[in-house]
Design a protein that fits this description.
This protein is of the alpha/beta class and 236 residues long. It is built from eleven helices and ten strands. The longest helix has 13 residues.
């Protein structure tokens, strides 16, 4: 998210903790799923409407429970999982916020759940959580690519470089890999040199580098700027 210029707000909660809170507030088993669905609307419709909806289920006291703070949550066994997650987030230098009203709608989640938001839009950008599959505890994540693409602050116009191998394929590949390791977009032309510049123009390469025996001995390579026609020297 940082690379895309998006400031993430990472929210976490725990479904086991929520179940413990529902039990503590004497919510009937048959009503639990509906109560969680209503709480999941907290950020969308606000506390007043959520309370009104929960009142029909005799469960409005759950909202008060979720607002009690850490002293209340500490009495539940599952809160230890939140504390453990926060500890590891700090190790990795990731800022995460505990959000008691974060539910994640899918009923198969059973442990930590998370959403990543940003100040720029209300919708969630990335979300997921932990669940059991074939008795294996797993964690899944999904990305809202359309939302991320809309918010991404990146320059999509990247320089493309073409190495022209003058019967020096091995060395051309080595040099290309060095530039690829620096996140450059690099291709190699292995055909006849006479057609190489036509190829570079056809595929919109901004720079062309010739790799021949003479260049390798001198460790100097001619770079041709395809827009200006200017030539410069690359030393390795």
């Amino acid at each position: 998210m940082n690379k895309l210029g998006i400031e993430p707000i990472i929210l976490v909660n725990n479904r086991s903790l929520l179940n413990e809170i529902l039990n503590d507030n004497k919510i009937k088993e048959k009503d639990k799923e509906q109560v969680l669905r209503e709480i999941d609307k907290y950020d969308k419709i606000g506390e007043k409407e959520v309370r009104a909806n929960l009142k029909k289920l005799c469960a409005e006291k759950v909202v008060d429970a979720l607002k009690k703070g850490e002293k209340y949550f500490c009495k539940f066994e599952s809160y230890k999982e939140i504390l453990e997650l926060m500890k590891y987030c700090k190790f990795y230098g990731v800022k995460a916020l505990f959000s008691p009203t974060l539910i994640r709608g899918l009923s198969y989640y059973n442990k930590n759940v998370f959403e990543i938001k940003t100040k720029d839009i209300r919708e969630t950008l990335i979300a997921g959580g932990s669940y059991k599959f074939n008795d294996v505890q797993c964690t899944g994540v999904a990305f809202g690519l359309d939302r991320i693409a809309m918010l991404a602050k990146i320059n999509l116009e990247k320089e493309k470089i073409l190495f022209i191998s003058l019967e020096q394929d091995k060395e051309a590949i080595k040099l290309a890999q060095k530039l690829r390791d620096k996140n450059k977009i690099v291709s190699i032309y292995y055909g006849k040199p006479s057609k190489a510049l036509d190829y570079a123009n056809a595929y919109d390469f901004q720079k062309v580098i010739f790799v021949g025996e003479k260049e390798l001995k001198a460790k100097k390579f001619m770079i041709k700027d395809m827009k200006t026609g200017k030539e410069s020297i690359l030393k390795i």
